[in-house]
Amino acid sequence: MKTKFEIMVSSNDLIDLGFKPFQAKQMIRESKEHLVTVEGIDFYDNRQVNIVPARIIEKLFSIQIL
Fold it and tell me: Which long-range contacts (CB under 8 A, 24 or more apart) does 30-36 make?
């Protein structure tokens, strides 16, 4: 069995990449909303979840994380 893990991104990772704190938190918030509404993953409909897959950030904001 081959296991595939996704790279997860937090707002602190985005701040380290050069985004301002408010921008980073807003990007995480919008990514979580996308995951819940479009992809139907209810896990992200939780205030305590502060990380999202890097692929979502790359897809929504057209930036390269890796």
Answer: 30/60, 31/56, 31/57, 31/60, 34/60
